Sequence to fold (970 residues):
Amino acid sequence: MYNLTEEGKKYLKEGLPEINLVQILDKPLSLEEARKRVNNFGIALQWAKKNGWVKIEDGKLVRVKIPKSYKIWDILKAFSEGKGLDEDSLRILLQRKLIRKESVLVKKAEKYVGKEVTNLTPELIKTGLWRKVRFRPYNIDAKGKTIYPGKRHPYNHFLWLVRRKLVELGFKEMTGPLIEMEFWNFDALYQPQNHPSRDWTQTYSLKNPKTGRLPERELVQRVKASHENGWKTGSTGWGYSWDPEKAKKLMPRAHTTACSARRLASGIEIPGKYFSISRCYRPDVIDATHGVEFNQMEGIVIDESLTFKEMLGLLKMFAIEIAGAEKVRFYPDYYPFTEPSVQLSARHPEMGWVEFAGAGIFRPELTEPLGVDQPVIAWGFGIDRLAMYKLGIKDIRYLFSQDIQWLREQKVLRW
Amino acid sequence: MPTIEVSYHDLCRLIGKNIPFKELSEKAILYAKGEIDEVDGDSLKIDIKDTNRPDLWSAEGIAREIKGRYGYPGLPEYPTQPSGLKVIVDRKMKSIRPYTVCAVVKDLDIDEHVLSQMIQLQEKVSITFGRNRKEVAIGVYDFNKITPPIKFTAFKPKELRFVPLEFKKEMTLDEILKEHPKGKEYGHLLQDLPEYPIFIDANQEVLSMPPIINSDYTGKVTQETRDLFIECSGFNLKFLMPALNVIVTALAERGGKIETVEVVYPDRKLITPDLSPKRFSLNPDYVRKISGLNLSTKDMCMLLEQARYKTSIKKEKIELLCPAYRQDIMHERDVVEDIIISYGYNKVEPIFPKLFTIGSQEKIEEFGYIASEIMIGMGFQEIMSYTLTNKNNLFGRMLLKESQVAEIENPVSSNWCVFRNWLLPSLMEFLSKNKHREYPQKIFEIGDVVIIDHTQETKTRNPRKLACAITDTKIGYEDVTSVLDAFFRNLNLRYTMKKIKHSSFISGRVASIFVEGNEVGFIGEVHPQVLNNWELEKPVAAFEIDLSKILDVLD
Fold:
């Protein structure tokens, strides 16, 4: 089955453009004149020339001949009157796009005419028959099927927001290995080998592999001297015999400060601001405040000009920029590797006073053996605590939730 | 950090001034590096932040520190005189518990506060500073029940009997280790020794078996006791001397009179305690450089006197005498902190460091972010798992032969005792916990794994991996290959696949993935036996690729 196209219907009414053109050319006409008098002039000229009815002479359009009959017109007329046409004739009309094959689906669309429909179909849209149907009104309150978009893990998303914030503040990220030598985790940080935090109850050790390779001899010797007698730093040192075998032992890193030690030893930009957000491991009994693993955010700031005042300023800035705190208070604090040391408590509009961060100036017994003479502020920020608040969870184990439904339903965090 | 329990009124009595509670908690307690953690009537729980200042772990020590800022500055004086008491150290102690240092404190008026503080200080010093009694064990005795001289010697486990503190019957040494609570707690410190250390007097009366327990007779101190004999024993005089000084000076703050003891070793004699102040010199420019405070040398001296130093100015430098209970001072830097504490941390103006630096993330973090964007765009939920797991998850359940993985020596749980060397088991575990949740489930994780690699200084490396898994009633190999294809197309990376054998996957439905000739991972349909092992009931298709390697190729 075939139907007239819009073009076919139009020509049936107005006549075919090339026929209209040849008929007005009783005398030669300029192209502009002819264009004014014939609709679809472009098509008219193309076909009239092709058929050899007209030609252009001295910029004017001249009739060559009036044909005896117009075949295309006769076929179109015959089609419109419902007369059967042969294959050739049909092909001519199809090629001129005056008729088109009527699809089965269009027929299907016709059966909806005058009725109330549920779905707006492509056929209704194409055929324009949508004008002749009524759409069934829906219950606009009804919710669609619940869908769960692909999403970032909320905790990871939070860490990413923090990471971005630090980069905005001009901090460079640093990393280090998950399995670390005690040397970098403790010794290079001037933590004595008999310190309680190096006890097996406080840190993990590795059964396999057991030991790593210490860095270059000179560095190791300086660290050893620093522990034993203060080396050239003007310190007394811890005053014990430093054992390289203990320093070689491998352990899952207990804090990201190990990354800072490596960075200091491997050359550092001055001025420099660095951060690290990394997985750390301690053998805590697992409960609502201690997970199997946790993330620490730490870093260092180095410049000749830095003093205790800048250290407080840095912490205050973190409290405001990252934790959204309103007010801060500082407390004297202690870390084996910093002096002076400070702890920051900040008042958060909803959480109240929270110990958010700590910092200190690295001891000279730490920095000088690593080849650094400038003051280095080491800082740390309680990132998991803030994450728990932001995600609205009370149990730290939920940070690593294995419940897909919880993940699907978590709201996407804004900064 | 040690938490110290003190009585508010006792503390004020020691300070010599009634400090309103608000002022104590917001200002005064900070001088002792403390923070009031809990208040229960008159009883305060104070966190002392400094684990290297045992002198602050008692009401006496806290008060002494605060007092300096409340009208009693300067070096505390601790005069001593000889007690005439001798402690003789047996030659054989060298291989058992080589050192002891001792003191006598007389004329004490012991009330409940003095007693409880003394016990608490002894406890905190031997646990935190004395490394759980390993380095320092402390004994306190009724001096008047002892017949001098005292011998520090050792006995075989069954050779000697005495009544341990709070017990009624005589017991042999090894019975005490087995039956007394302190014996059970600290017995491991004497493990493998042929003989156990003993303090014993001229009457053969046992004082104690350090580092375990005192005898009930001499080692019991009550409110009626006036004179005390005190000993610290261990392995290193560097620990023992300061520990003794901390204990005796705290008692001196209560009005006790300190007397010295002659400790006779086979090769030398020690007169202990040694309470002479240590000399130290300080450059005022250094103080200004570190603190950023514009203090005059005189100001510094005043602030140091408040921190209980004695100061004098000599040729632009400050000469210091620092109290004998301070064992923490190693460097000028330690003194700088004392100056700032006296000045008041909250009086210092915070200044944001004006350093121009260019921020950046680690490349692998950025790449991981882009990779996650593509996965999320395809409707995958990101998950986050622990890097610690167990061998059954990594190998057994995945039908793999066990291989070398980084393994923890002292795990808190057998569930988390090795580091994962691939990611897919984490995803399988996740799926196994969500069987009751709506399907399909499409998840991915980007995370580190630990690979043993002896070429590395830490014998390991931790590449960052991406793994994804899809599960539903009808899921197959082709569902995940189209994800992989989209992933690489969007990174503008060409990849090829090669048929492999991998027992975690169905044979003939698993391949390894190559990017520019580098093997970067594998893809496949998970073996039904693996699904059974995880108690999963729907098919799973997955891939795992090494983002660190791919990043290398891209660069």
Observations:
- Chain B touches chain A through 95 residues (CB under 8 Å).
